[in-house]
Design a protein that fits this description.
This protein has 2 domains: 189 residues, Jelly Rolls, CATH 2.60.120; 115 residues, Orthogonal Bundle (Arc Repressor Mutant, subunit A). Helix content is 41%, strand content 23%. It has 10 helices and 12 strands. Helix 2 runs antiparallel to helix 3, helix 4 crosses helix 6 and helix 7 crosses helix 9.
């Protein structure tokens, strides 16, 4: 048997808060669970995409149970991830730093950190993923400030439990209550648990490639409203076009153009969902020069026409729901 036996688990995966697996608003988050034996662990990673369908509550969550010896393959993403361990013993490797976790511990994974999870002893935990853009809009410095990886605090654990309760029970006005609790949790974390340790150094060829892709993604996040070419991005990261495009696709699984379209459509979705602008305005504010091209790309990326999102957002704005 090879040292890694890959098992895809499709049933126990994260559904967005806004729907179930049968709903068009739902997005299933698939992660690979692997069985590790005594042979050396082969380093590999994947960029994880999160499509937040609900502008009012841009979070995803799920509960995970891993038998002893199993783990989640190394991945990274721009969003914040907070784990709450409820059973057994777990180990989280964050940018080559080992964090051992037991029941009651919270583990915070900062934006753009490589991380993987290993079950040391029949582990169970909740995973809460919070949209980076939501944090920045709310004044949470998700990119500039790092939080300590392991947190043992009863008040914060209580905040986390309350968030999970609201997400699972979905009482009236649950979006507002969940959002308030998430912001309270983040405010307390950023006020009292900042990590003063320097960021771990990344070495090796693969880490250099990852650093280049991270830099490109940060540039796209700050400049997606502008008219951008691949040459613009290559100049920013200091790479040739051929090398950059090949590495970007190998790391993220998407071409540069596909990723930029994904980013622009995600931002446009937020604008349309709040009722602040119409389809043409959203297209222009998110860097699309053609309304017809925007509509085509938006439907492919989001799963519905932008006019549908705009209509729903305008209706919710009128009713205040």
């Amino acid at each position: 048997m090879p040292f890694v036996c890959k098992i895809l688990l499709f049933a126990r995966r994260a559904l967005e808060f806004s729907g179930s697996s049968g709903s068009p608003a739902a997005k299933i988050l698939l992660r690979e669970v692997v069985l590790l034996n005594s042979a050396p662990y082969k380093y590999e990673y994947e960029y994880e995409y999160h499509t937040m369908r609900d502008a009012a509550l841009p979070v995803m969550y799920h509960e995970e149970r891993l038998p002893t010896g199993y783990g989640i393959l190394t991945n990274w993403h721009e969003n914040l991830e907070i784990l709450w361990f409820t059973k057994g013993l777990g180990r989280v490797i964050i940018d080559n730093v080992q964090v051992d976790a037991e029941p009651g511990d919270l583990v915070f994974i900062n934006s753009n950190c490589l991380h993987r999870i290993i079950s040391v002893e029949d582990v169970a935990y909740y995973c809460l993923i919070i949209d980076r853009s939501f944090c920045l809009r709310s004044g949470i410095p998700a990119e500039k400030v790092r939080i300590q990886p392991r947190i043992r605090d009863g008040i914060l654990r209580g905040n986390y439990k309350q968030i999970i309760r609201v997400l699972e029970e979905k009482p009236p006005y649950c979006e507002a209550e969940a959002q308030a609790n998430i912001l309270l949790l983040l405010a307390r974390l950023y006020r009292g648990f900042q990590d003063d340790a320097s960021e771990p150094e990344s070495v090796g060829h693969k880490h250099n490639q990852l650093t280049m892709v991270r830099s490109a993604i940060q540039f796209l996040n700050s400049s997606y409203q502008q008219s951008l070419t691949i040459d613009d991005i290559c100049r920013r990261v200091g790479s040739s076009k051929y090398h950059f495009c090949r590495v970007f696709r190998a790391v993220t699984g998407k071409t540069v153009v596909d990723y930029l379209n994904f980013l622009r459509c995600e931002r446009a979705q937020f604008l349309l969902s709040t009722g602040d602008c119409n389809v043409q305005e959203a297209a222009e504010r998110c860097g699309f020069c053609s309304g017809s091209y925007f509509s085509m790309v938006y439907k492919r990326q989001i799963g519905e026409a932008p006019s549908v999102t705009a209509k729903r957002g305008a209706s919710q704005a009128r009713t205040g729901s």
